[in-house]
Write a structure and sequence with these properties.
Helix content is 28%, strand content 24%. It is an alpha+beta fold. The protein has two domains: 68 residues; 50 residues, no CATH class. The strands form two sheets. A four-stranded antiparallel beta sheet has the order 1-4-3-2, with no helix packed on it. Strands 5-6 form a two-stranded parallel ribbon. It comes from Octopus bimaculoides (California two-spotted octopus). InterPro entries: Endo/exonu/phosph_ase_sf (IPR036691). This is Endonuclease/exonuclease/phosphatase domain-containing protein.
Length: 148
Protein backbone atom coordinates (compact mmCIF):
# COMPACT_ATOMS: atom_id res chain seq x y z
CA UNK A 1 0.00 0.00 0.00
CA UNK A 2 1.27 3.48 -0.88
CA UNK A 3 1.70 5.86 2.06
CA UNK A 4 0.32 9.40 2.02
CA UNK A 5 3.83 10.73 2.73
CA UNK A 6 5.29 8.89 -0.26
CA UNK A 7 2.50 10.15 -2.55
CA UNK A 8 3.06 13.74 -1.36
CA UNK A 9 6.83 13.43 -1.87
CA UNK A 10 6.41 11.96 -5.36
CA UNK A 11 3.92 14.65 -6.37
CA UNK A 12 6.31 17.33 -5.10
CA UNK A 13 9.20 15.85 -7.14
CA UNK A 14 7.05 15.63 -10.28
CA UNK A 15 5.81 19.21 -9.94
CA UNK A 16 9.37 20.51 -9.40
CA UNK A 17 10.60 18.65 -12.48
CA UNK A 18 7.72 19.99 -14.59
CA UNK A 19 8.52 23.51 -13.39
CA UNK A 20 12.23 23.03 -14.21
CA UNK A 21 11.35 21.82 -17.73
CA UNK A 22 8.78 24.63 -18.16
CA UNK A 23 5.96 22.19 -18.91
CA UNK A 24 2.45 23.65 -19.03
CA UNK A 25 0.45 20.41 -19.25
CA UNK A 26 1.73 16.90 -18.59
CA UNK A 27 -0.04 13.57 -18.84
CA UNK A 28 0.77 11.27 -15.94
CA UNK A 29 0.62 7.49 -15.97
CA UNK A 30 1.01 4.94 -13.18
CA UNK A 31 -0.23 7.47 -10.61
CA UNK A 32 -1.40 4.69 -8.27
CA UNK A 33 -3.93 7.07 -6.70
CA UNK A 34 -7.39 5.84 -5.69
CA UNK A 35 -10.67 6.96 -7.25
CA UNK A 36 -10.54 10.39 -8.90
CA UNK A 37 -9.59 13.76 -7.61
CA UNK A 38 -8.09 17.19 -8.00
CA UNK A 39 -5.37 18.78 -5.90
CA UNK A 40 -4.19 22.36 -6.40
CA UNK A 41 -0.67 23.16 -5.26
CA UNK A 42 1.56 26.21 -5.64
CA UNK A 43 2.44 25.86 -9.35
CA UNK A 44 0.36 22.96 -10.68
CA UNK A 45 -3.04 21.40 -10.23
CA UNK A 46 -3.13 17.61 -10.44
CA UNK A 47 -6.16 15.73 -11.77
CA UNK A 48 -6.31 11.94 -11.60
CA UNK A 49 -8.44 8.87 -12.21
CA UNK A 50 -7.50 5.55 -10.65
CA UNK A 51 -8.99 2.32 -9.43
CA UNK A 52 -11.56 2.22 -6.63
CA UNK A 53 -10.59 3.05 -3.06
CA UNK A 54 -10.77 -0.64 -2.04
CA UNK A 55 -8.82 -1.95 -5.04
CA UNK A 56 -5.08 -2.49 -5.43
CA UNK A 57 -3.36 0.82 -6.11
CA UNK A 58 -1.83 0.19 -9.50
CA UNK A 59 -2.03 1.95 -12.82
CA UNK A 60 -3.96 5.24 -12.84
CA UNK A 61 -3.73 8.27 -15.10
CA UNK A 62 -3.93 12.01 -14.71
CA UNK A 63 -2.75 15.44 -15.70
CA UNK A 64 -0.61 18.10 -14.08
CA UNK A 65 -1.64 21.51 -15.36
CA UNK A 66 0.09 24.80 -14.68
CA UNK A 67 -2.19 26.94 -12.53
CA UNK A 68 -1.81 29.96 -14.81
CA UNK A 69 -3.62 27.97 -17.54
CA UNK A 70 -6.60 26.85 -15.49
CA UNK A 71 -8.82 29.86 -16.19
CA UNK A 72 -8.17 29.36 -19.91
CA UNK A 73 -9.10 25.69 -19.69
CA UNK A 74 -12.25 26.03 -17.61
CA UNK A 75 -13.84 28.77 -19.68
CA UNK A 76 -14.31 28.59 -23.41
CA UNK A 77 -16.23 31.85 -23.70
CA UNK A 78 -14.12 33.29 -26.51
CA UNK A 79 -15.58 30.82 -29.03
CA UNK A 80 -12.26 29.08 -29.66
CA UNK A 81 -12.23 25.42 -30.60
CA UNK A 82 -12.17 23.05 -27.59
CA UNK A 83 -9.14 20.83 -27.10
CA UNK A 84 -9.78 17.35 -25.69
CA UNK A 85 -6.91 15.69 -23.82
CA UNK A 86 -6.77 11.96 -23.19
CA UNK A 87 -4.21 10.48 -20.81
CA UNK A 88 -4.03 6.72 -21.32
CA UNK A 89 -2.00 3.88 -19.86
CA UNK A 90 -1.88 0.83 -22.12
CA UNK A 91 -1.46 -2.73 -20.86
CA UNK A 92 2.01 -4.22 -21.10
CA UNK A 93 3.17 -6.81 -23.59
CA UNK A 94 2.60 -9.53 -21.00
CA UNK A 95 -1.07 -8.66 -20.36
CA UNK A 96 -3.73 -11.01 -21.67
CA UNK A 97 -5.22 -10.37 -25.10
CA UNK A 98 -8.60 -9.68 -23.44
CA UNK A 99 -7.08 -6.92 -21.29
CA UNK A 100 -5.41 -5.36 -24.35
CA UNK A 101 -8.59 -5.58 -26.43
CA UNK A 102 -10.62 -4.01 -23.62
CA UNK A 103 -8.16 -1.10 -23.32
CA UNK A 104 -8.19 -0.32 -27.05
CA UNK A 105 -12.00 -0.69 -27.20
CA UNK A 106 -12.37 1.84 -24.37
CA UNK A 107 -9.87 4.20 -26.00
CA UNK A 108 -11.71 3.94 -29.33
CA UNK A 109 -15.04 4.75 -27.65
CA UNK A 110 -13.53 7.82 -25.95
CA UNK A 111 -12.11 9.05 -29.26
CA UNK A 112 -15.38 8.45 -31.14
CA UNK A 113 -17.32 10.39 -28.47
CA UNK A 114 -15.43 13.60 -29.27
CA UNK A 115 -17.50 15.80 -31.58
CA UNK A 116 -16.24 16.36 -35.13
CA UNK A 117 -14.27 19.55 -35.47
CA UNK A 118 -12.86 19.50 -31.94
CA UNK A 119 -9.15 19.01 -31.42
CA UNK A 120 -7.86 15.83 -29.80
CA UNK A 121 -4.50 15.20 -28.14
CA UNK A 122 -3.67 11.70 -26.89
CA UNK A 123 -0.86 11.56 -24.35
CA UNK A 124 -0.08 8.01 -23.37
CA UNK A 125 2.26 5.39 -22.13
CA UNK A 126 1.56 2.77 -24.80
CA UNK A 127 4.14 0.42 -23.23
CA UNK A 128 5.91 -0.03 -26.56
CA UNK A 129 9.21 -1.84 -26.88
CA UNK A 130 11.68 -0.14 -29.19
CA UNK A 131 14.61 -2.53 -29.01
CA UNK A 132 17.86 -2.27 -27.09
CA UNK A 133 19.46 0.55 -29.12
CA UNK A 134 17.96 3.86 -28.01
CA UNK A 135 20.77 6.01 -29.43
CA UNK A 136 18.57 7.26 -32.28
CA UNK A 137 16.27 8.90 -29.70
CA UNK A 138 18.96 10.93 -27.92
CA UNK A 139 18.45 14.11 -29.90
CA UNK A 140 14.68 14.27 -29.57
CA UNK A 141 13.69 12.91 -26.17
CA UNK A 142 16.43 13.68 -23.65
CA UNK A 143 15.07 16.97 -22.41
CA UNK A 144 11.53 15.73 -21.93
CA UNK A 145 11.81 12.14 -20.75
CA UNK A 146 11.65 11.65 -17.01
CA UNK A 147 11.55 8.06 -15.83
CA UNK A 148 12.56 5.98 -12.87
Amino acid sequence: KTSKRSVTHTRHLINNELLRLRVNIAALQETRLPDSGTLRERDYTNFWQGKGIDEVREHGVGFAMKNSLLNLVELNSDGSEPVNLISAYAPTLYSSQDVKDNFYDQLSRKIQAIPNGEQLVILSDFNDRMGADHSYLLGCLDRYVVAT
